[in-house]
């Protein structure tokens, strides 16, 4: 890549997530002696973002680019080594950026939690990205970074062979703090993602023509609702993108490095039965309305009403963000000894359990922007530790052999082993 390019350009810098990304980019670029710019449609708005979120940065380049203007997108990507793309929903606005980045030899990271978008990009552009030496990595924020890299961390620390991992997400607000905790853009992506979930079967048939080995014992679901011994409260299946992202990483590790793929199931835990009822009702109404055009319009028009106050068009305020905490607890079952081949099945039941945890503050935007920008920095600094010289990859596959987990540990995202027991 040309040395006169900016190291990082934040595209969609005036959006809710984009502003936090600018703030973290300014911080990390100063630490790493890197250069950055901001991009979007309106110069005045971009100037205001720099003034508020990067006040100590001097002469930050402003690039005008519109995702609907192909030439402007190409000119923007030609000026960067890595594009930090904060312009969603990605199913509508992501592909032009990916296409332009591959054409101009520019790496691309984003915070998509949309399986259809991510898997479609892998299907259509993975080979071209590899040939161009470009990395395209989605899901670089909350909640897939803690889950996907948490699984990689657990595999590193297990000291044997893992059969299955169950993950439990917990989100907490400090006592007395109430208000929206998610931005409208996240809500919008979820609405369209669920509406088009039927696309995934055909996508995956094309993307994964070869089945993974039939590994045993099979990981059985704990059911829609249960109580877990490692996550106090009421737990239910987590229907976000975490499981699909993690399974893509596990498939990559099997196909690339011949590592036994871990079976994964993801859950979310709430503290009280009342919270369980609230989440269940919101989920049921959301699922029902997302099936029709009229229902989707209602969800998008009245996000606060249909989310019971969790989502607003204005997004969470600073106080709410600062008082939010998250954890992902991972329970890994497996064996103390590895078999010779990743396709071999053990004859004895699992005899080892390892519990790990990933935790931090301000998950939706503080942690997300930190992780997002650190993925860009990692590509720039540790490309030699990443696989295949390019490709469309999930974060676990892309960054599993880099120091990204160590970097996150230094910046507020804690990875730790809670316990290890053997029978």
Structural features, described:
The protein is of the alpha/beta class and 423 residues long. The chain has two domains: 6-137, Rossmann fold (3-Layer(aba) Sandwich); 145-363 and 405-422. The protein is built from 17 helices and 16 strands. The chain has a seven-stranded parallel beta sheet with strand order 3-2-1-4-5-6-15, sandwiched between helices. Strand 1 (6-11), helix 1 (16-32) and strand 2 (36-40) form a beta-alpha-beta unit. Helix 1 (16-32) packs across helix 15 (363-382), helix 3 (70-77) crosses helix 5 (95-104) and helix 7 crosses helix 10. The mean pLDDT is 92. The chain crosses the membrane at residues 267-289. This is Putative saccharopine dehydrogenase. It comes from Ooceraea biroi.
How are the SSEs ordered, and which strands pair?
Blueprint: E1 6-11, H1 16-32, E2 36-40, H2 43-53, E3 62-64, H3 70-77, E4 80-85, H4 90-93, H5 95-104, E5 107-110, H6 115-132, E6 135-137, H7 144-158, E7 161-173, E8 182-183, H8 184-195, H9 199-207, E9 225-226, E10 234-237, H10 242-257, E11 263-270, H11 273-289, H12 293-301, H13 303-306, E12 311-312, H14 318-322, E13 324-335, E14 352-361, H15 363-382, E15 391-393, H16 395-399, H17 404-410, E16 414-422
Parallel strand pairs: 1-2, 1-4, 2-3, 4-5, 5-6, 6-15, 7-11, 8-12
Antiparallel strand pairs: 7-13, 9-10, 10-11, 13-14, 14-16
Keywords: Membrane, Transmembrane, Transmembrane helix
Pfam families: Sacchrp_dh_NADP (PF03435)
Organism: Ooceraea biroi (Clonal raider ant)
């Amino acid at each position: 890549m040309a040395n006169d390019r900016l190291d990082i350009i934040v595209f969609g810098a005036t959006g809710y997530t984009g502003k936090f990304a600018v703030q973290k980019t300014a911080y990390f670029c100063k630490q790493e002696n890197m250069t950055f710019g901001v991009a979007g449609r309106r110069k005045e708005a971009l100037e205001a973002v720099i003034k508020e979120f990067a006040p100590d940065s001097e002469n930050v380049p402003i690039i005008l680019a519109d995702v609907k203007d192909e030439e402007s997108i190409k000119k923007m990507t030609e000026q960067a080594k890595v594009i930090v793309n904060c312009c969603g929903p990605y199913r509508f606005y992501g592909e032009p950026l990916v296409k332009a980045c591959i054409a101009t030899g520019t790496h691309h990271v984003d915070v998509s939690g949309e399986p259809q978008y991510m898997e479609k990009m892998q299907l259509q552009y993975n080979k071209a990205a590899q040939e161009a030496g470009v990395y395209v990595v989605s899901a670089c924020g909350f909640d897939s970074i803690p889950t996907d890299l948490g699984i990689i961390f657990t595999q590193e620390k297990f000291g044997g062979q893992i059969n299955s991992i169950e993950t439990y997400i917990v989100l907490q607000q400090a006592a007395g703090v109430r208000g929206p905790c998610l931005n409208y853009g996240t809500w919008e992506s979820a609405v369209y993602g669920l509406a088009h979930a039927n696309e995934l079967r055909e996508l995956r048939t094309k993307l994964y023509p070869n089945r993974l080995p039939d590994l045993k014992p099979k990981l059985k679901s704990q059911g829609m609702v249960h109580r877990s011994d490692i996550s106090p409260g009421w737990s239910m299946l987590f229907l976000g993108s975490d499981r699909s992202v993690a399974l893509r990483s596990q498939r990559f590790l099997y196909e690339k490095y011949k590592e036994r793929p871990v079976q994964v199931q993801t859950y979310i835990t709430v503290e009280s039965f009342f919270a369980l009822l609230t989440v269940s009702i919101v989920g049921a109404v959301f699922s029902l309305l997302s099936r029709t055009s009229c229902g989707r319009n209602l969800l998008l028009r009245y996000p606060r009403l249909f989310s019971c106050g969790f989502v607003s068009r204005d997004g969470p305020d600073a106080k709410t963000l600062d008082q939010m905490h998250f954890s992902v607890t991972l329970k890994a079952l497996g064996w103390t000894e590895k078999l010779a081949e990743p396709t071999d099945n053990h004859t004895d039941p699992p005899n080892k359990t390892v519990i790990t945890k990933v935790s931090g503050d301000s998950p939706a935007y503080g942690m997300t922007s930190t992780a997002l920008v650190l993925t860009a920095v990692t590509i720039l600094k540790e490309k030699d530790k990443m696989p295949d010289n390019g490709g469309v990859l999930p974060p676990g596959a892309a960054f599993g052999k880099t120091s990204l987990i160590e970097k996150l540990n230094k910046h507020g995202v804690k990875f730790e082993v809670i316990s290890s027991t053997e029978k």
